[in-house]
Amino acid sequence: MSALGPVSSILQDLRDNAPPDRFSLNWLLDSLHSRSFSVAILMLALVAMAPGISIVAGLLIILLGLQMVAGRSSPAFPRRVGAYTLPTAYLTGAVGRVTPILTQIEKIIRPRWPLPPQTAKRAVGCVVVLLSIALVFSPIPLSNVAPAFVIALISMAYLEEDGLFLSIALAAGVAMLAIAGVVIWQAILGVQSITSLF
After folding, report:
1. What mean pLDDT comes out for the span 35-49?
2. Is residue 77 a contact partner of residue 63, using CB atoms and an 8 Å limit?
3. C-beta of residue 19 within 8 angstroms of C-beta of residue 27
4. Do residues 63 and 133 make contact, with C-beta atoms less than 8 angstroms apart?
5. What is the distance between the alpha carbons of residues 40 and 10, in angstroms, rounded to a whole number?
6. Which of 10, 12, 106, 119 is most deeply buried (CB count within 10 A of its CB)?
7. Structure pTM?
8. Residue 85 forms beta bridges with which residues?
């Protein structure tokens, strides 16, 4: 993996070259070539911020994250999944919304603190899978936005080979998971206390 220029430019190129109505997952992977995991997950994370599509995008991110944990050199979708299409409007809208934010983030991201490639890939895969599970199964409206955004930050740092920013983004992801775990545990205790009254 190597840095391939500003992430915002990569996303704008994908948006400009996307099919007019719907894009398939195979088209996305074919367009990325060597950019593979990082940009594919970033794109899906941006799409996952939109209501109504977050579950599908989250499940696809889980699939890619598991492939990273397994040490695959490039991502792949099963044939039927690869042919699945998403509205291009989701992609266009997401890129348009986040590009100004990404442009600001890019001012502080640069290659530094190099990490062992396979270790970094597996760490990213693990955290991304867990965040995606939270994204998919959280019942709270708009609860998909925060984990999807953290996944996007992790993907950016991984793409740009910024070990420092990646460490911070991974730590933010772990902290978010810890908070979610505490909330779920408290909810379980609350339900148990209520059921004990009957």
Report:
1. 81
2. yes
3. yes
4. no
5. 11
6. 10
7. 0.77
8. 24
Which contiguous run of DSSP H or E holds residue 80?
A: helix 79-82
CA-based R_g, the chain, Å: 17
The string of pLDDT tens digits covering residues 114-129 is 877 788 888 999 999 9
Phi/psi region, residue 162 (left: phi>0; alpha: psi -120 to 50; beta: rest), is: beta
Assigned token pair, 32? 């990325």
Amino acid identity of residue 50, one-letter, is A
Rounded to a whole number of angstroms, the distance between the first and last alpha carbons of the chain is 58
Q: What is the mean pLDDT of the segment spanning 60-64?
A: 91
Question: What DSSP line would sit under 137-162, residue for residue?
Answer: H--STTTTHHHHHHHHHHHHHHHTTB
Residue 95, SS3 per DSSP = helix
